[in-house]
């Protein structure tokens, strides 16, 4: 494994190593390039403002990613473009991708706000972060000035909304179990089961101790030696090295529908009228926790199966097999048990092998919430009080962003084989209750099963609470790759 | 195969039939009729169970079926594309051909009139059709059955049983039972009172004692022969392996990536059910040594698949710490063109990505053993190491060799192999006595 000393953090965009938690204000600009020659000087200037992983920005930060189409606009040679990954080149909209990602029917790209066939082709993604709204606005306004005169066009500006206690809109703490990459955390080197650096960044050994498919150029295509030589052949220069793929999806969250449905599902027994509303709320929140696999505070059900325990600080420190192989604490189909199964799947559940298997399907999440919360407290009990206060649907959700070196084996695998798959882990008709598609292969799949003794509880007719509203695959280049693109 | 050997095989098969069998028919097609045939197959593939031409759902003993169009071996100047029909059936191959002719002979005529040698309109009788089909049957060299003896009919019935029990449990207040056994008894009573599913109280048809005894004797005899070969011929085998090791240094691995358009076209027909069909064809490495290696390994594989990995866990050897794969329903290896090419087909659960990942993560050694005889396969090290473990090379290799299924039918599209095994255990658990703990374990399956 490459040692930390040899990693050039000054070559890696900062988003790879940090989520900019100290910069709560963020927005994303989606641009198209109309005139490459006019745009290049502006882009070079822009590239100079990028934050790299060796810095700790506390005022503002800026990162830049591009689509396949964007690289083509920058006149990258076709042979080089062809050396990018299949998923990046195909994009998110092919018939097959729609199918496996669940982007059909109301989620179809035709209805998307951006990234679909009905909206303009996206070339660039500008990720902007700042310590407060004012700083962010100053920065983004400056960026936008003269953009059109420079051959660029702003297609969409996506704002974000910092929510209390690091929660997402349904009211659950988010962003807890990030893949642990030893090279990024030299201060806590003792943690076992590090995800291989090559799973997150191109140009390093991946979970199979191999190099993931990445763009390489012939030495003569890089006459100024802007790039490093590839570790496999001195005739090739590594355009992928220290870069990675960025998956962006705008996911609308229907918060009132979520809590309304759960309220009905949890309390539809005959005695509900005699119960006081506190008991009924507790039941609703408890069912929601079963679906998520965590309590609103973020404490995992495996850690505290009966009620929320906000005092547990190590919310990522648990496994499934030894304490809950049957799903009695955390249901087998719960969101976090599907998207990060830890040690619960074959081969040999409970073993290091099982964890290594899961570790080859991890993604580094960097998303942010958007839209106003249903209640600023972000407390589900408050949500249940105000469940009917909104007369019209409010645009809110998650700007889901994740980084991975192999989109097919990481992001798409998690979404398809784990989240959308109704037969996941021995189940029959259960998609991921939070993010899973409710119709797969033309069949309605909307059950949620809570394993119980002596006999399970089953909920039918789970509506979709999350809708895809936009999305695209991007490449997040290294400093060197960016200067190659812009040269 | 010489007629004598074939005859002996037929007699053996009659005395000791395998419960499930693999049918492969390969027929060269007439060039001018290829495009019409493609269109026809596309129409069938719009609704494989219930299309008007060849409605597969009429066959109770059929698990999976597919049509492939296979380009001829490497001489582009001569046209010899052939049609391949494959089916996984319960019972004898010849019985299934009879069924085909009984139910869909009109549809078969429409398809097969594009093939060389098919009886002309006036000469089409049941026996002339049968003679034609039977003479084009290809044997396969190795055949994997997820669970030997589990019939398509039983799979579908056990699925209906589970569905009925789900509805029953949904309407039940399980907390009102004072023990798990009492709850189980209520389930059994429900099954008994329900004429649609009361068959489930009778235990499953199992292969007869005699059948199993012959299987065991067969395995013992083969093992004994194997040991004798090892004892007498080990110097030869060591030399063989050493020679292969030396050859590995010269082996050329395929380094080109499959075309994106090609991959996207292949993907377009995938992921329409809980499982997928896979088909890939490739050339064997040239030379007698490789041909003999491939043939002998397939013979060995066939023995192991039939006698060892016959209960749902392919290539799992807990003693060696090797995890198996429980997501494959059927798989088969068929030599084509006088051992020039090998066709691999399977029906597996989940996405191709997860299938490849299973190969790479769990059974790379087994794949390497057989497929390292294929031209361009990722370089192996001592035959079992590396190879498929080279993730990208391996995925590219598959992408370069995968072929499209023109038609694919599954008899139980919503079920994975794990589901099917669970349904079987639900059925089995309706019989016999259980203590509280056993009843709890059984009820977890529901």
Description:
The complex is a heterodimer of chains A (487) and B (446). Chain A is α+β, with helices and mostly antiparallel strands. Chain A contains 14 helices and 16 strands. Chain B has 446 residues and is an alpha+beta fold. Chain B folds into three domains: 3-139, 2-Layer Sandwich (Alpha-Beta Plaits); 152-206 and 416-444, no CATH class; 209-410, Alpha-Beta Plaits (2-Layer Sandwich). In chain B, the strands form three sheets. Chain B has a five-stranded antiparallel beta sheet. A four-stranded antiparallel beta sheet of chain B has the order 5-7-8-6. Chain B has a two-stranded antiparallel sheet with strand order 9-10. In chain B, a hairpin with a 3-residue loop joins strand 9 (380-381) and strand 10. The model of chain B has no long low-confidence stretch (mean pLDDT 93). At the A-B interface, helix 4, helix 5 and helix 13 of A face helix 5, helix 8, helix 10, helix 13 and helix 14 of B.
């Amino acid at each position: 494994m490459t040692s930390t000393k040899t990693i050039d953090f000054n070559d890696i965009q900062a988003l790879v190593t940090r989520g900019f938690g100290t910069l709560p204000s963020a927005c994303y600009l989606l641009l198209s390039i109309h005139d490459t020659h006019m745009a290049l000087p502006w882009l070079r200037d822009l590239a100079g403002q990028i934050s790299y992983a060796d810095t700790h920005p506390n005022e503002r930060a800026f990162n830049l990613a591009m689509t396949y189409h964007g690289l083509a606009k920058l006149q990258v040679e076709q042979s080089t473009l062809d050396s990018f990954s299949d998923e990046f080149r195909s994009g998110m909209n092919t018939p097959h991708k729609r199918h496996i990602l669940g982007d059909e029917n109301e989620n179809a790209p035709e209805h998307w706000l951006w990234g679909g066939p009905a909206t303009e082709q996206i070339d660039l993604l500008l990720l902007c972060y700042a310590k407060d709204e004012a700083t962010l606005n100053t920065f983004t306004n400056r960026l936008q000035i003269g953009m059109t005169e420079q051959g660029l066009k702003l297609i969409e500006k996506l704002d974000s909304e910092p929510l209390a206690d690091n929660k997402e809109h349904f009211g659950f703490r988010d962003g807890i179990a990030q893949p642990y990459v030893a090279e990024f955390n030299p201060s806590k080197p003792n943690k076992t089961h590090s995800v291989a650096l090559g799973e997150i960044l191109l140009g390093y050994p991946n979970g199979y101790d191999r190099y993931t498919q990445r763009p390489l150029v012939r030495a003569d295509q890089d006459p100024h030696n802007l790039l490093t030589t590839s570790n496999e052949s001195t005739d090739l220069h590594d355009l992928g090295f220290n870069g990675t793929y960025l998956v962006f999806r705008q996911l609308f969250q229907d918060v009132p529908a979520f809590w309304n449905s759960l309220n009905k599902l949890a309390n539809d027994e005959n005695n509900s009228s005699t119960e006081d509303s506190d008991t009924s709320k507790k039941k609703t929140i408890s069912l929601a926790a079963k679906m998520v696999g965590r309590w609103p505070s973020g404490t995992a059900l495996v850690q505290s199966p009966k009620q929320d325990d906000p005092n547990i600080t190590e919310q990522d420190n648990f496994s499934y097999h030894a304490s809950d192989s049957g799903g009695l604490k955390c249901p087998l189909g719960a969101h976090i048990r599907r998207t990060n199964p830890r040690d619960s799947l074959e081969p040999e559940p409970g073993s290091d092998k099982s964890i290594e298997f899961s570790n080859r399907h991890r993604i580094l999440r960097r998303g942010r919430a958007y839209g106003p919360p249903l209640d600023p407290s972000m407390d589900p009990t408050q949500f249940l009080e105000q469940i009917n206060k909104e007369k019209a649907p409010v645009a809110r959700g998650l700007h889901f962003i994740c980084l991975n070196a192999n989109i097919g084996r990481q992001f798409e695998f998690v979404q398809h084989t784990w989240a959308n798959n109704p037969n996941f882990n021995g189940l029959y008709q259960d998609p991921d209750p939070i993010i899973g598609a409710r119709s797969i292969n033309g069949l309605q799949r909307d059950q949620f099963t809570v394993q119980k003794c002596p006999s399970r509880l089953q909920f039918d007719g789970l509506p979709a609470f999350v809708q895809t509203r936009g999305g695209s695959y991007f490449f997040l280049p290294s400093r060197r790759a960016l200067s190659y693109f812009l040269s | 195969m010489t007629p004598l050997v074939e005859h002996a095989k037929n007699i053996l098969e009659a005395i000791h039939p395998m419960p499930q069998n693999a049918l492969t028919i390969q027929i060269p097609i007439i060039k001018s009729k290829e495009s019409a045939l493609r269109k026809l197959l596309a129409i069938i593939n719009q609704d494989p169970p219930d299309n008007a031409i060849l409605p597969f759902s009429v066959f109770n003993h059929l698990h999976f079926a597919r049509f492939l169009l296979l380009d001829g071996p490497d001489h582009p100047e001569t046209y010899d594309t052939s049609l391949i029909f494959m089916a996984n059936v319960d019972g004898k191959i010849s019985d299934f051909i009879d069924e085909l002719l009984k139910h869909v002979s009109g549809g078969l005529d429409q398809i097969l009139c594009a093939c060389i040698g098919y009886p002309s309109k006036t000469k089409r009788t049941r026996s002339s059709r049968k003679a034609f089909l039977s003479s084009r049957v290809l044997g396969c060299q190795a055949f994997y059955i997820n669970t030997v003896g589990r019939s398509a009919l039983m799979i579908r019935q056990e699925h209906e049983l589970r569905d009925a029990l789900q509805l029953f449990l949904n309407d039940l207040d399980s907390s009102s039972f004072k023990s798990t056994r009492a709850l189980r008894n209520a389930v059994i009573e429900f099954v008994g009172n329900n004429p649609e599913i009361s068959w489930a109280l009778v235990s499953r048809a199992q292969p007869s004692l005699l059948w199993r005894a012959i299987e065991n004797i067969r395995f013992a005899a083969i093992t004994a022969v194997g040991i004798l070969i090892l004892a007498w011929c080990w110097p030869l085998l060591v030399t063989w392996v050493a020679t292969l090791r030396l050859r590995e240094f010269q082996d050329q691995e395929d380094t080109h990536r499959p075309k994106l358009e090609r991959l996207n076209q292949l993907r377009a027909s995938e992921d329409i059910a809980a499982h997928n069909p896979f088909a890939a064809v490739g050339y064997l490495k040239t030379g007698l040594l490789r041909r003999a290696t491939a043939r002998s390994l397939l013979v060995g594989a066939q023995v192991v698949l039939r006698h060892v990995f016959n209960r749902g866990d392919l290539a799992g050897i807990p003693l060696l710490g090797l995890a198996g794969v429980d997501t494959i329903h059927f798989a088969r290896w068929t030599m084509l063109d006088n051992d020039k090419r090998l066709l691999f087909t399977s029906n597996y659960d989940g996405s191709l990505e997860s299938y490849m990942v299973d190969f790479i993560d769990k059974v790379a050694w087994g794949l390497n053993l057989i497929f390292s005889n294929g031209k361009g396969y990722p370089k192996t090290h001592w035959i079992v190491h590396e190879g498929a473990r080279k993730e990208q090379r391996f995925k590219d290799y598959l992408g370069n060799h995968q072929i499209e299924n023109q038609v694919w039918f599954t008899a139980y599209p919503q079920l994975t192999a794990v589901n099917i095994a669970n349904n079987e255990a639900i059925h089995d658990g309706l019989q016999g006595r259980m203590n509280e703990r056993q009843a709890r374990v059984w009820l977890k399956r529901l």
